[in-house]
Amino acid sequence: MTIQNVTVLGSGTMGAGIAQTAIVAGFDTTLYDIEDGLLEKARAQISKRMDRQVEKGRLDAPRAAEAMGRLSTSSDLDAAVKEADYLIEAVPEKLELKREIFGRCEGSAPAHCVFGTNTSTLMISSIAESLSDKGRLIGIHFFNPVPVMKLIEVVMGPDSSNTSYVATLEVAQKMRKETVKVAESPGFTTSRINALIGNESFRMLEAGVASASDIDKALKLGLNHPMGPFEMVDLVGLDARLNNLRALYAALGDEAYRPSPLLERLVEDGRLGRKSGQGVYRYDDSGQRIVGSDDVSP
Ligand SMILES: NC(=O)c1ccc[n+]([C@@H]2O[C@H](COP(=O)([O-])OP(=O)(O)OC[C@H]3O[C@@H](n4cnc5c(N)ncnc54)[C@H](O)[C@@H]3O)[C@@H](O)[C@H]2O)c1
Question: Which residues approach ligand 1 with their CB closer than 6 A?
Protein backbone atom coordinates (compact mmCIF):
# COMPACT_ATOMS: atom_id res chain seq x y z
CA MET A 1 0.00 0.00 0.00
CA THR A 2 1.25 3.51 -0.66
CA ILE A 3 0.39 5.74 2.23
CA GLN A 4 -0.10 9.42 1.45
CA ASN A 5 -2.82 10.68 3.80
CA VAL A 6 -2.16 10.43 7.51
CA THR A 7 -4.61 11.61 10.17
CA VAL A 8 -3.40 12.26 13.69
CA LEU A 9 -6.07 12.13 16.41
CA GLY A 10 -5.28 14.41 19.36
CA SER A 11 -3.09 17.50 19.08
CA GLY A 12 -1.39 17.43 22.49
CA THR A 13 2.27 16.76 23.32
CA MET A 14 2.48 13.64 21.19
CA GLY A 15 -0.07 14.44 18.49
CA ALA A 16 1.58 17.77 17.60
CA GLY A 17 5.02 16.12 17.46
CA ILE A 18 3.71 13.25 15.33
CA ALA A 19 1.98 15.66 12.93
CA GLN A 20 5.20 17.69 12.61
CA THR A 21 7.18 14.54 11.83
CA ALA A 22 4.53 13.39 9.35
CA ILE A 23 4.53 16.63 7.31
CA VAL A 24 8.33 16.69 7.16
CA ALA A 25 8.22 13.06 5.95
CA GLY A 26 5.98 14.15 3.06
CA PHE A 27 2.60 12.87 4.25
CA ASP A 28 -0.52 14.97 3.67
CA THR A 29 -1.49 15.25 7.30
CA THR A 30 -4.75 16.11 9.02
CA LEU A 31 -4.62 16.89 12.71
CA TYR A 32 -7.85 16.34 14.65
CA ASP A 33 -8.84 17.52 18.14
CA ILE A 34 -12.07 18.36 19.91
CA GLU A 35 -11.74 22.16 19.74
CA ASP A 36 -10.50 24.52 17.05
CA GLY A 37 -8.63 26.55 19.69
CA LEU A 38 -6.47 23.52 20.55
CA LEU A 39 -5.73 22.95 16.87
CA GLU A 40 -4.68 26.57 16.38
CA LYS A 41 -2.36 26.24 19.35
CA ALA A 42 -0.86 23.04 17.94
CA ARG A 43 -0.38 24.60 14.50
CA ALA A 44 1.38 27.62 16.01
CA GLN A 45 3.61 25.32 18.06
CA ILE A 46 4.52 23.19 15.03
CA SER A 47 5.25 26.30 12.96
CA LYS A 48 7.50 27.71 15.70
CA ARG A 49 9.41 24.44 15.97
CA MET A 50 9.85 24.30 12.19
CA ASP A 51 11.18 27.89 12.23
CA ARG A 52 13.69 26.85 14.86
CA GLN A 53 14.80 23.93 12.65
CA VAL A 54 15.36 26.42 9.81
CA GLU A 55 17.31 28.80 12.09
CA LYS A 56 19.52 25.92 13.19
CA GLY A 57 20.15 24.95 9.55
CA ARG A 58 18.52 21.52 9.93
CA LEU A 59 15.80 22.24 7.40
CA ASP A 60 15.80 24.70 4.52
CA ALA A 61 13.12 27.38 4.45
CA PRO A 62 11.31 26.29 1.23
CA ARG A 63 11.13 22.69 2.50
CA ALA A 64 9.72 23.87 5.84
CA ALA A 65 7.10 26.01 4.07
CA GLU A 66 6.18 23.10 1.82
CA ALA A 67 5.81 20.84 4.86
CA MET A 68 3.57 23.37 6.64
CA GLY A 69 1.44 23.40 3.46
CA ARG A 70 0.80 19.67 3.96
CA LEU A 71 -0.80 20.25 7.38
CA SER A 72 -4.54 20.67 7.72
CA THR A 73 -6.63 20.63 10.87
CA SER A 74 -10.19 19.66 11.67
CA SER A 75 -12.40 19.38 14.73
CA ASP A 76 -14.84 17.17 12.79
CA LEU A 77 -13.82 13.54 13.29
CA ASP A 78 -15.68 12.08 10.31
CA ALA A 79 -14.25 14.69 7.93
CA ALA A 80 -10.74 14.30 9.40
CA VAL A 81 -10.56 10.55 8.73
CA LYS A 82 -12.58 10.13 5.54
CA GLU A 83 -9.56 10.10 3.21
CA ALA A 84 -6.98 8.69 5.61
CA ASP A 85 -4.69 5.83 4.60
CA TYR A 86 -3.25 5.62 8.11
CA LEU A 87 -4.57 6.91 11.47
CA ILE A 88 -2.31 7.68 14.40
CA GLU A 89 -4.32 8.06 17.58
CA ALA A 90 -2.75 10.15 20.38
CA VAL A 91 -5.71 11.03 22.63
CA PRO A 92 -5.46 10.66 26.44
CA GLU A 93 -4.59 7.24 27.84
CA LYS A 94 -8.17 6.16 28.56
CA LEU A 95 -9.36 2.84 27.25
CA GLU A 96 -13.00 3.84 26.78
CA LEU A 97 -12.02 6.99 24.89
CA LYS A 98 -9.70 5.13 22.51
CA ARG A 99 -12.31 2.40 21.92
CA GLU A 100 -15.00 4.96 21.22
CA ILE A 101 -12.86 6.97 18.80
CA PHE A 102 -11.73 3.94 16.80
CA GLY A 103 -15.29 2.60 16.79
CA ARG A 104 -16.45 5.86 15.20
CA CYS A 105 -13.52 5.88 12.76
CA GLU A 106 -14.44 2.41 11.53
CA GLY A 107 -17.66 3.93 10.20
CA SER A 108 -16.03 6.88 8.45
CA ALA A 109 -12.45 5.96 7.42
CA PRO A 110 -11.78 4.14 4.10
CA ALA A 111 -11.81 0.33 4.35
CA HIS A 112 -8.06 0.11 3.61
CA CYS A 113 -7.09 2.60 6.36
CA VAL A 114 -4.82 1.17 9.07
CA PHE A 115 -5.52 2.23 12.66
CA GLY A 116 -2.37 2.96 14.68
CA THR A 117 -2.52 3.74 18.39
CA ASN A 118 0.22 5.56 20.30
CA THR A 119 -0.91 4.05 23.61
CA SER A 120 1.91 3.65 26.14
CA THR A 121 0.34 1.04 28.35
CA LEU A 122 -2.98 -0.28 27.06
CA MET A 123 -3.42 -3.63 25.34
CA ILE A 124 -4.00 -3.43 21.61
CA SER A 125 -6.53 -6.28 21.93
CA SER A 126 -8.53 -4.33 24.55
CA ILE A 127 -8.71 -1.22 22.37
CA ALA A 128 -9.65 -3.40 19.37
CA GLU A 129 -12.77 -4.68 21.13
CA SER A 130 -14.83 -1.85 19.60
CA LEU A 131 -13.82 -2.89 16.05
CA SER A 132 -15.39 -5.46 13.79
CA ASP A 133 -12.09 -5.75 11.86
CA LYS A 134 -9.58 -6.12 14.71
CA GLY A 135 -6.70 -6.82 12.31
CA ARG A 136 -6.47 -3.19 11.24
CA LEU A 137 -5.45 -2.00 14.74
CA ILE A 138 -1.75 -1.94 15.67
CA GLY A 139 0.46 -0.07 18.14
CA ILE A 140 2.72 2.66 16.77
CA HIS A 141 4.45 3.87 19.91
CA PHE A 142 6.42 7.09 19.53
CA PHE A 143 8.71 8.77 22.03
CA ASN A 144 8.80 12.34 23.26
CA PRO A 145 9.97 14.61 21.65
CA VAL A 146 8.74 12.83 18.53
CA PRO A 147 10.76 14.77 15.90
CA VAL A 148 13.99 13.95 17.76
CA MET A 149 13.55 10.42 19.08
CA LYS A 150 14.65 7.69 16.70
CA LEU A 151 12.52 4.74 17.84
CA ILE A 152 9.02 3.49 17.18
CA GLU A 153 7.84 0.38 19.01
CA VAL A 154 5.50 -1.49 16.68
CA VAL A 155 3.13 -3.33 18.98
CA MET A 156 1.33 -6.38 17.64
CA GLY A 157 -1.98 -7.35 19.17
CA PRO A 158 -2.99 -11.00 18.75
CA ASP A 159 -5.15 -10.01 15.77
CA SER A 160 -3.00 -7.25 14.21
CA SER A 161 -2.65 -8.16 10.54
CA ASN A 162 0.48 -8.38 8.47
CA THR A 163 -0.97 -5.63 6.24
CA SER A 164 -1.13 -3.33 9.28
CA TYR A 165 2.43 -4.27 10.19
CA VAL A 166 3.81 -3.58 6.71
CA ALA A 167 1.94 -0.25 6.54
CA THR A 168 3.37 0.75 9.92
CA LEU A 169 6.90 -0.05 8.76
CA GLU A 170 6.28 2.13 5.69
CA VAL A 171 5.17 5.06 7.87
CA ALA A 172 8.17 4.59 10.16
CA GLN A 173 10.63 4.35 7.31
CA LYS A 174 9.34 7.55 5.66
CA MET A 175 9.61 9.27 9.04
CA ARG A 176 13.20 7.98 9.25
CA LYS A 177 12.55 6.11 12.46
CA GLU A 178 13.94 2.76 13.55
CA THR A 179 11.45 0.13 14.69
CA VAL A 180 11.31 -2.78 17.11
CA LYS A 181 8.51 -5.36 16.93
CA VAL A 182 6.89 -6.09 20.28
CA ALA A 183 4.08 -8.44 21.28
CA GLU A 184 1.44 -6.64 23.34
CA SER A 185 2.29 -6.74 27.02
CA PRO A 186 1.96 -4.16 29.80
CA GLY A 187 4.24 -1.19 29.07
CA PHE A 188 5.79 -2.98 26.06
CA THR A 189 9.58 -2.83 26.43
CA THR A 190 10.46 0.82 27.04
CA SER A 191 7.63 2.13 29.26
CA ARG A 192 7.83 -0.91 31.52
CA ILE A 193 11.51 -0.37 32.29
CA ASN A 194 11.33 3.42 32.32
CA ALA A 195 8.39 3.51 34.75
CA LEU A 196 10.28 1.19 37.09
CA ILE A 197 13.45 3.32 37.08
CA GLY A 198 11.37 6.48 37.54
CA ASN A 199 9.37 5.03 40.43
CA GLU A 200 12.46 3.73 42.20
CA SER A 201 14.08 7.16 41.82
CA PHE A 202 11.12 8.80 43.59
CA ARG A 203 11.36 6.19 46.33
CA MET A 204 15.07 6.92 46.81
CA LEU A 205 14.32 10.63 46.95
CA GLU A 206 11.57 9.97 49.50
CA ALA A 207 13.94 7.88 51.63
CA GLY A 208 16.54 10.66 51.58
CA VAL A 209 19.12 8.54 49.74
CA ALA A 210 20.25 11.50 47.62
CA SER A 211 18.96 14.75 46.16
CA ALA A 212 17.07 14.74 42.85
CA SER A 213 19.95 16.37 41.00
CA ASP A 214 22.43 13.85 42.44
CA ILE A 215 20.23 10.89 41.46
CA ASP A 216 20.03 12.37 37.94
CA LYS A 217 23.80 12.90 37.90
CA ALA A 218 24.44 9.34 39.13
CA LEU A 219 22.40 7.77 36.35
CA LYS A 220 23.89 10.03 33.69
CA LEU A 221 27.55 9.77 34.64
CA GLY A 222 27.57 6.36 36.33
CA LEU A 223 25.20 4.44 34.05
CA ASN A 224 25.55 6.49 30.89
CA HIS A 225 21.85 7.40 30.69
CA PRO A 226 21.51 10.46 28.44
CA MET A 227 18.97 12.01 30.87
CA GLY A 228 18.38 11.63 34.57
CA PRO A 229 15.07 10.04 35.69
CA PHE A 230 13.77 13.33 37.14
CA GLU A 231 14.76 15.32 34.08
CA MET A 232 12.87 12.71 32.09
CA VAL A 233 9.73 12.68 34.25
CA ASP A 234 9.58 16.50 34.10
CA LEU A 235 9.65 16.20 30.31
CA VAL A 236 7.12 13.35 30.08
CA GLY A 237 4.75 14.85 32.67
CA LEU A 238 4.35 13.60 36.24
CA ASP A 239 0.64 12.99 35.66
CA ALA A 240 1.38 10.86 32.57
CA ARG A 241 3.96 8.86 34.54
CA LEU A 242 1.53 8.35 37.43
CA ASN A 243 -1.13 7.08 35.00
CA ASN A 244 1.39 4.68 33.46
CA LEU A 245 2.45 3.35 36.85
CA ARG A 246 -1.15 2.83 37.94
CA ALA A 247 -1.90 0.92 34.75
CA LEU A 248 1.27 -1.17 35.05
CA TYR A 249 0.63 -1.93 38.72
CA ALA A 250 -2.92 -3.03 37.91
CA ALA A 251 -1.73 -5.21 35.03
CA LEU A 252 1.41 -6.75 36.54
CA GLY A 253 0.46 -6.74 40.24
CA ASP A 254 4.11 -6.17 41.13
CA GLU A 255 4.72 -3.88 44.15
CA ALA A 256 7.66 -2.30 42.33
CA TYR A 257 5.10 -0.52 40.15
CA ARG A 258 2.95 0.83 43.00
CA PRO A 259 3.27 4.60 42.49
CA SER A 260 5.50 6.35 45.00
CA PRO A 261 3.46 8.53 47.41
CA LEU A 262 5.82 11.43 46.63
CA LEU A 263 4.93 11.26 42.94
CA GLU A 264 1.23 11.15 43.85
CA ARG A 265 1.61 14.20 46.10
CA LEU A 266 3.43 16.25 43.47
CA VAL A 267 0.69 15.50 40.94
CA GLU A 268 -1.99 16.47 43.51
CA ASP A 269 -0.11 19.75 44.04
CA GLY A 270 -0.26 20.46 40.29
CA ARG A 271 3.47 19.94 39.81
CA LEU A 272 3.18 18.19 36.47
CA GLY A 273 6.64 18.90 35.03
CA ARG A 274 7.86 21.32 32.38
CA LYS A 275 4.33 21.85 31.07
CA SER A 276 3.18 23.39 34.38
CA GLY A 277 6.47 25.23 35.05
CA GLN A 278 7.25 22.97 38.00
CA GLY A 279 7.70 19.25 38.51
CA VAL A 280 10.65 17.85 40.39
CA TYR A 281 12.51 20.98 39.24
CA ARG A 282 11.25 24.50 38.58
CA TYR A 283 11.43 26.26 35.21
CA ASP A 284 11.42 29.92 34.27
CA ASP A 285 9.08 31.48 31.69
CA SER A 286 11.42 30.57 28.84
CA GLY A 287 11.41 26.92 29.94
CA GLN A 288 14.95 27.01 31.38
CA ARG A 289 15.47 24.98 34.52
CA ILE A 290 16.14 27.17 37.57
CA VAL A 291 19.48 26.26 39.07
CA GLY A 292 19.22 24.74 42.55
CA SER A 293 15.48 24.11 42.19
CA ASP A 294 15.45 20.42 43.21
CA ASP A 295 13.79 21.29 46.48
CA VAL A 296 11.37 18.35 46.61
CA SER A 297 11.23 17.04 50.14
CA PRO A 298 9.72 13.77 51.35
N1 LIG B 1 3.64 12.17 26.70
C2 LIG B 1 4.46 11.19 26.36
O3 LIG B 1 5.69 11.25 26.58
C4 LIG B 1 3.94 9.97 25.63
C5 LIG B 1 4.86 9.11 25.01
C6 LIG B 1 4.37 8.01 24.27
C7 LIG B 1 3.01 7.78 24.20
N8 LIG B 1 2.14 8.62 24.84
C9 LIG B 1 0.71 8.33 24.69
O10 LIG B 1 0.19 9.24 23.72
C11 LIG B 1 -1.18 9.53 24.02
C12 LIG B 1 -1.36 11.03 24.12
O13 LIG B 1 -0.51 11.52 25.14
P14 LIG B 1 -0.10 13.07 25.24
O15 LIG B 1 0.98 13.14 26.25
O16 LIG B 1 0.08 13.64 23.89
O17 LIG B 1 -1.45 13.67 25.87
P18 LIG B 1 -1.95 15.19 25.89
O19 LIG B 1 -2.85 15.30 27.05
O20 LIG B 1 -0.80 16.14 25.74
O21 LIG B 1 -2.80 15.31 24.54
C22 LIG B 1 -4.01 14.64 24.33
C23 LIG B 1 -4.83 15.43 23.32
O24 LIG B 1 -6.01 14.70 23.02
C25 LIG B 1 -7.07 15.61 22.98
N26 LIG B 1 -8.33 14.93 23.23
C27 LIG B 1 -8.99 14.71 24.38
N28 LIG B 1 -10.14 14.06 24.13
C29 LIG B 1 -10.19 13.88 22.80
C30 LIG B 1 -11.11 13.29 21.94
N31 LIG B 1 -12.26 12.77 22.39
N32 LIG B 1 -10.83 13.29 20.62
C33 LIG B 1 -9.69 13.83 20.15
N34 LIG B 1 -8.78 14.40 20.91
C35 LIG B 1 -9.03 14.42 22.23
C36 LIG B 1 -6.77 16.67 24.01
O37 LIG B 1 -7.50 17.86 23.72
C38 LIG B 1 -5.25 16.81 23.82
O39 LIG B 1 -4.96 17.79 22.85
C40 LIG B 1 -1.52 8.76 25.29
O41 LIG B 1 -2.07 7.53 24.93
C42 LIG B 1 -0.15 8.56 25.94
O43 LIG B 1 -0.12 7.43 26.78
C44 LIG B 1 2.57 9.71 25.54
Answer: 9-15, 33-34, 38, 90-93, 97, 101, 118-120, 142, 144, 236-237, 240
Do both 175 and 87 map to the same domain?
A: yes
Protein residue with its CA nearest to atom 18 in ligand 1: 12
For residue 119, which atom of ligand 1 is closest to its CA? 41
Residue 249 alpha carbon to ligand 1 centre in Å? 21
Identify whether residues 173 and 201 lie together within a single domain: no
For 49-146, where are the E strands, in sequence order? 71-74, 86-89, 114-117, 137-141
The CATH number covering residue 240 comes to 1.10.1040.10
pLDDT (tens place) for every residue of the chain, 298 residues total: 799 999 999 999 999 999 999 999 999 999 999 999 999 999 999 999 999 999 999 999 999 999 999 999 999 999 999 999 999 999 998 999 999 999 999 999 999 999 999 998 889 999 999 999 999 999 999 998 999 999 999 999 999 999 999 999 999 999 999 999 999 998 899 989 999 999 999 999 999 999 999 999 999 999 999 999 999 999 989 999 999 899 899 989 999 999 999 999 999 999 999 999 999 999 999 999 998 887 776 5
**Helix 238-252 vs helix 229-236: angle between axes, to the nearest 10 degrees?**
100
DSSP percent split of the chain into helix, strand, coil, nearest 5: 50, 15, 35
Domain count, the chain: 2
Same structural domain for residues 36 and 173?
A: yes
Q: Are residues 119 and 90 in the same domain?
A: yes
